[in-house]
Write a structure and sequence with these properties.
By secondary structure, the protein is mainly beta. It contains one helix and eleven strands, in the order βββββββββαββ.
Length: 128
């Protein structure tokens, strides 16, 4: 079991930046990947970005590609989501997730059901 704790959410104006952090504790394996998802009120949880822990391969949703960057610090067991050029439609609760993956297919990393460990979420609000 992996415990995940997110931090770094807040209120920012459109065009601004925020960096989210997700600290992982417990057992992790080289086959693990960590992802960021978000959920706005009345909407389904959607994929934002993911990173494979071993070699650092990354995956992004089309809506954030070029604006968001996912990265990891192996020494700190922490994953980051740098969010630039934020838009009001980025407003949501952002969740960190972890799971074991044996495929490199994007579709596995983008599916919430592929992850079995979730953080409590952190609110990101972008004002216009």
């Amino acid at each position: 079991q992996v415990q995940l704790v997110e931090s770094g959410g807040g209120l920012v104006q459109a065009g601004g930046s925020l960096r989210l952090s997700c600290a992982a504790s417990g057992r992790t394996f080289s086959t693990y990947a960590m992802g960021w998802f978000r959920q706005a009120p009345g909407k389904e949880r959607e994929f934002v970005a993911a990173i494979r822990w071993s070699e650092g391969s990354t995956y992004y949703a089309g809506s954030v590609k070029g604006r968001f960057t996912i990265s990891r610090d192996s020494a700190k067991n922490t994953v980051y989501l740098q969010m630039n050029s934020l838009k009001p439609e980025d407003t949501a609760v952002y969740y960190c997730a972890a799971g074991e993956f044996y495929s490199i297919s994007y579709y596995y990393y983008a599916a919430p059901g592929s992850y079995n460990n979730w953080g409590q979420g952190t609110q990101v609000t972008v004002s216009s």
